[in-house]
Design brief:
binds flavin mononucleotide; alpha/beta; 5-stranded mixed beta sheet; Glutaredoxin; 26 helices; binds iron/sulfur cluster; binds FE2/S2 (inorganic) cluster; single chain; Arc Repressor Mutant, subunit A
């Protein structure tokens, strides 16, 4: 009784829940750590009798009968709670960081056990169901079900089987590995990892094996090589030597006004590079109309099969992206920036963590101004409202609109969402405009974007090319032509969702608005090239399986539609009428872009490759 009073008067934990108060108190008093936790939990056993009313557990129906309530469901043990708290000792215990805490627990144990999830729920004041539904939503969390044997600390070996990797033989690789069975490793077929130019790709823990073979994968497992390799990149000091952060300084020092910046971006015609192609300056104006405080969220979730340009910018030019983010935040007068980075980019995460600290130490940003959040393997979290849900520590389920995220976004605040590449170009465009010595290139960057090209070309990779380049031009003049022994048959102009076109239509400019009349779109400009050795139909099946797996399941046309479509597409002869009906329903009734665009490749096959069905 006395001890519970001591805990409650802890002044450092004014706004916390009762349980958080105890844990915060315990963790902030090293001398008492452990003891207080223990006592608090002992007290809990008798809480109906000794705790004040507000802390009592009330369950529906107890009413007048005054049943003595007791906590239901799985209760964490004292030692489980203590162990999880020790693991998160540096952390503030915020519900919105649930995904990060799950990562930390999984990194430590190799999986998420019911005991650890119950302990985490207790610490965060969440129900176990909430923790469980989040943990099971994301592919990178390995949740153990009750009574499952605790697995040995196996290394997760993820083999990419999305289209570009499948073209390079990843399915055969998977088969061989499964029959060969690697000792001490778990083989997991996985979607695109953003390295389609070096396919097939395997991820061993957080270490990537490019051009993977059974031998190279085995070697990495045997060597326990699970850490990401950092590429060479320009750090803060080298970026500053080349004029880095001068544009941002001009913005905050009043040398560049908001109106000027808006005019430059408006007249450049810059459109969002995340896929939707919404004019960036127009979006700024929408968000500025909303009341403060506002937030900026950077979308670095890049999961569209065939797309790897955001990784390119994060690994090759991280400070250009960060300066672009600071400028965009200045434009909308946002105090905080959240970067949502996919878990598949561990090298980019290391770079960002290091360079964000360097920015703080250099006094360019205040500590905590830019927060880095990591995803956990869910393509749908690239959709902006799903991303926001995920940053808030929830399942990545798209929100219904209106309200739009520009009005009610992250933590209910007006939020500007920008793709990584968009931020890169925002800075570049302003830089070129400011620098008179670059007047000849003033408008050049307004006409450029990054195309990720993969598949049957000689030199796959990220190509900075004029916006609206044709596939033929891109293949021949940027990607070294077709790969040896392959003849150009078809291409995907916009990754998995953008449809498939035959080579006879390879002279259409690949830009927003130019491909729609052919049933396609450019989206994030992921160009995947197929040859005479590939089946367009099989490619479409691969893409539909991807959508089936990645559908968040919220709405029936997408959840059931993708599954039905896969089954129908696996039939020897396609039922055209039925597939057309299904496509219509999915397009018209799905809540978000995933379900609306999922039928594109299937429709392309019906339209352009009837001989294959
Ligand atoms: C299913 C789906 C997945 C998406 N994935 C991404 C993504 O990985 N990265 C991204 O920047 N935008 C993605 N988008 C688009 C975002 O919703 C949003 O339009 C974009 O991040 C806005 O930034 P921008 O205007 O700078 O392009 C996706 C959209 C949908 C419907
Ligand atoms: S369309 Fe698919 S991904 Fe989008 S909300 Fe519906 S079920 Fe989820
Ligand atoms: S990394 Fe395999 S398809 Fe992109």
């Amino acid at each position: 009784m006395l001890l519970s009073l001591v805990i409650k008067t802890n002044p450092t934990a004014e706004k916390c829940t009762y349980r958080e108060k105890c844990y915060n108190f315990a963790s902030s008093n090293a001398r008492l750590r452990g003891k207080i936790l223990f006592i608090e939990l002992k007290v809990q056993n008798y809480w109906p009798f000794i705790l004040p009313n507000i802390y009592k557990f009330h369950h529906p129906g107890s009413g007048r009968k005054q049943t003595i309530p007791f906590p239901k469901g799985r209760q964490p043990t004292e030692s489980d709670v203590l162990k999880v708290r020790e693991l998160l000792i540096e952390k503030p215990l915020l519900k919105s960081e649930l995904i990060e805490y799950l990562h930390i627990i999984q990194d430590q144990h190799g999986h998420l056990s019911s005991e650890n999830m119950a302990a985490l729920a207790e610490l965060l004041g969440l129900s176990l169901a909430e923790v469980y539904e989040v943990a099971t939503f994301y592919a990178h969390f390995d949740v153990l079900i009750d009574n499952a044997d605790i697995p040995p600390n196996e290394i997760a070996v993820r083999i990419c089987n999305s289209l570009p990797c499948a073209l390079s033989g990843s399915n055969k690789l998977l088969e061989n590995l499964e029959t060969d069975s690697l000792k001490g490793a778990r083989i997991i077929p996985s979607p695109c990892m953003g390295r389609c130019d070096v396919s097939p790709v395997a991820e061993i823990g957080h270490h990537y094996v490019d051009y993977a073979t059974t031998e190279s994968i085995k070697k990495a497992v045997d060597d326990n090589n699970t850490d990401p390799e950092l590429p060479d990149y320009p750090d803060l000091s080298s970026f500053k030597k080349n004029g880095g952060y001068n544009i941002y300084e001009a913005c905050i020092n009043g040398k560049l006004s908001y109106n000027e910046a808006e005019d430059i971006i408006l007249s450049s015609g810059l459109k969002g590079m995340g896929g939707a192609g919404f004019p960036s300056a127009q979006k700024w104006a929408f968000v500025r109309k909303e009341s403060k405080p506002r937030l900026l969220a950077v979308n670095a979730d890049e999961g569209e099969p065939g797309t790897f340009k955001d990784r390119y910018f994060l690994e090759k030019a991280p400070h250009e992206v960060l300066e672009g983010a600071l400028i965009a935040a200045w434009v909308i007068d946002a105090d905080e920036i959240y970067i949502y980075l996919r878990d598949e980019y561990p090298a980019a995460r290391k770079i960002l963590l290091k360079e964000l600290l360097a920015l703080e130490n250099a006094g360019i940003i205040n500590p905590g101004k830019i927060k880095l959040r990591r995803g956990a393997g869910a393509y749908i979290c690239g959709e902006e409202s799903a991303m926001i849900e995920s940053i808030e520590g929830k399942r990545g389920i798209p929100r219904h609109r209106p309200p739009y995220v520009a009005q009610v976004g992250l933590f209910q605040r007006p939020t500007l969402v920008h793709n990584v590449e968009t931020l890169y170009w925002i800075r570049k465009l302003l830089e070129n405009h400011q620098d008179s010595s670059k007047s000849d290139t003033k408008n050049l960057s307004a006409n450029l974007r990054a195309y990720s090209i993969s598949g049957r070309v000689r030199e796959p990779g990220v190509k900075i090319a004029p916006i609206g380049i044709t596939a033929r031009d891109l293949i021949n003049n940027y990607a070294g032509g077709m790969a040896e022994g392959h003849n150009f048959k078809a291409y995907l102009p916009g990754g998995a969702s953008g449809g498939i076109l035959p080579a006879s239509l390879a002279d259409i400019p690949m830009d927003f608005g130019t491909l729609e009349k052919y049933g396609c779109f450019v989206g994030s400009a992921a160009v995947i090239v197929l040859s005479d050795q590939d089946s367009a139909r099989e490619a479409a099946v691969n893409l539909m399986k991807f959508f089936e797996k990645e559908s968040c399941g919220q709405c029936t046309p997408c959840r059931v539609g993708t599954e039905k479509a896969v089954n129908l597409m696996l039939a020897e002869k396609w039922d055209e009428k039925l597939l057309e009906d299904l496509s219509k329903v999915m397009r018209e009734a799905s809540i978000c872009g995933l379900g609306q665009a999922a039928p594109n490749p299937m429709d392309s096959i019906l339209k352009y490759f009837p001989e294959e069905i």
